[in-house]
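new request in #modeling-help
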Amino acid sequence: MKYGHFDDKNREYVITNPCTPWPWINYLGSEDFFSLISNSAGGYSFYKDAKFRRITRYRYNNVPMDSGGKYFYIKDGDSIWSPGWKPCKTELDSYECRHGMNYTVITGEKNGVSASVLYFVPLKTWAEVQKLTLTNNSGEVKKLKVFSFVEWCLWNAASDMENFQRNFSTGEVEIQGSVIYHKTEYKERRDHYAYYSVNVPVQGFDTDRESFFDLYNGFDEPQVVAEGKSHNSEAHGWSPIASHYIEAELKPGESKDFIFVLGYVENNADEKWESKNIINKRKAKETIAKFNTSSKVDAALDDLRKYWDNLLSIYTIDSGDEKLDRMVNIWNQYQCMITFCFSRSASFFESGIGRGMGFRDSNQDLIGFVHQIPGRARERIIDIASTQFPDGGCYHQYQPMTKRGNNDIGGGFNDDPMWLIFGTAGYIKETGDFNILDEMVPFDNDPSSARSLFDHLTVSFDHVIDNLGPHGLPLIGRADWNDCLNLNCFSNDPDESFQTTENKTEGSKAESVMIAGLFVVYGRDYIDLCIKSGKSAEADRAQKHVEAMIATIRKHGWDGEWFIRAYDYYGRKVGSHENEEGKIFIESQGMCTMAGIGLNEGLCTKALNAVKERLDCQHGIVLNNPAFTKYYIEYGEISSYPAGYKENAGVFCHNNPWIMIGETVVGNGDRAWEYYRKICPSYLEEISDLHKTEPYVYAQMIAGKDAYKPGEAKNSWLTGTASWNFYAITQYILGIRPDFDGLLIDPCIPTHWKGFKATRKFRGDTYRIEVLNPDGKSKGVKTVIVDDLPYKSNLIPVFGDGKEHKVKVVLG
Ligand code: GLC
Ligand code: GLC
């Protein structure tokens, strides 16, 4: 069953039934000020850091689900309703939610009145703007009462949920005209406050939650709305809120706009106050004035649309398959931007409190985003590298506000360093900016330790070879890419974290074939970077290590039919036919086939056939098989999950693309495509009831074949799945791949495709690409024609003239 439809022309997903199987959300803002908004206006806002600068409050995992948000209540005679259906849940005559590129429009209609709310964060603005449009479609005059509502969070989202003995006494507000200011803790150490305004005089307001709702009412029945009159309450402690009360009279056919601004301000210490206890409101007023008319708001929305027009013009395809086109051209790129901004911090599955920016996650995220705003990817690479340790190890996460490594989690995830090479090489392939390698970058944020970024890549590479185990394979440390394969943890205590507990690292022999494959794939990028930088001795040295690793994998990492996954603490195989459960894992098949290990001897094909046979199912490729059915203390968290979920044999969508790319290495375009389609959300729209999460974005995990409910997805939005699928489809299946010296066109498509067209902007030039497949092949370029002349290779040069160039590639 479907709950809406795609509107590709407007780049929107249109939800027409508010009772989606899970809140289907969108993100507003792309730089500093952010909001999450569900299809019924649930969600919250924050400035930069979802933990430390939470502006509005949200209640997670509540009853009902998705409680708290940016609500409007409309009282039309005795009828009280909300445009997003919730929280009132009054039956509407019509409902529609349009999630677009960083904006959302929610429209409800009841008894001849339509209320439509546009929500967005204008570019370069520290505020969310809401334009409420009321239209009287009836034949009579309508006298409406409108109440807005937001609830302030007392800034630190974690303590806001627990330290009530303090919180209930700290809340402070100021009310001036139609603006409500939340100045809690501003008097002491904070240099910031928030505000909520409306561009018309109000008939009343409320700032104290209990006065607004009454202590025993829910979001669906505020006392004030029922009475049809504000209490003009002033919050002192307890839970401060902001609600405006507006009376609106509309003639038949008449429409009126009301513009609300929910903003954030920072002031220098010497500019904090206007007078004693009265905050300096200058910056708030400036922002409010920028958006105080409909035409200003419409112009700002137009700017946002143009911004996205530009971002999404860099890579576009015309494949003849609308489901594919809408993913590649719109939604997958959009999700890549969102994951780039948020890493794994704030979604409807991540509380915004727990996790900062991940070292490995952020490096992978930028691969899906780098073509759009390379300058921000560059900055991100420097930030990430600055949290590395001198020995090449790294903090697993860092905090976005301070950009410092997170000590609670620390380091020891031995795949982390190699991802810095992946991210940096990806950035240089896109931009040609080799200068980034000369940037001086500190270790552990200590400026006195700064060395070139190139040196950071060298210590990343060396961290692997300095930490080899008894078979010559990389030691796994706390975990590799799979956070839950904890081979040194040995935890018997439910109060310990699998990620941070290592009970047996000293003298551990646990080794990872996944890291070995990763080392080969991106070690080759490192070698290329050495060569391009004129460091030939270093290139030779690295080459020897990569070759040695290939030999080691072939000797100790091959199980006969597939690649083994690891060696455990005791030196026993993990992911081998010898094991009772978890005989085969996806990660090592993905990395080692991407590396082409044993390609000529048929090892890759064998491994991929084993994946097809043992891991593939209707909903995608599961992570391991057979699923673990009991707890293995020597494997850690992976075996803590029920079979079929998450890392224990769930379809972990993040690494399905590794197999897709592996299939392109062996030239099997049919299978690569089959795997792509299986987990691609636009192809799952029809089964939304089962799939549950948004049909326009990827989820991290779909329950696998061993699960109670195979096919049910979880953890949508913030997942490396976004960038990896974009990378796999655009660079390996469609095969348009930035390389150090040009744009490589090397598709590996399904044999039944006749071809496709694409436009790729690359280093200032525009490539109009046409791929033809007259002979029903998957892979192999027969002829290349550039600007109507035959060309010698499928590596198309950088023309550097800023013009359009026609590239015609015929497979055969
Ligand atoms: C989560 C983490 C990612 C990890 C993956 C597998 O998606 O964000 O870092 O690689 O799980 O455990
Ligand atoms: C859990 C999840 C994993 C995630 C990790 C992050 O182990 O299963 O996906 O990466 O938490 O801490």
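bot summary: The pocket of alpha-D-glucopyranose (ligand 2) is lined by residues 483-484, 499, 637, 646-647 (CB under 6 Å).
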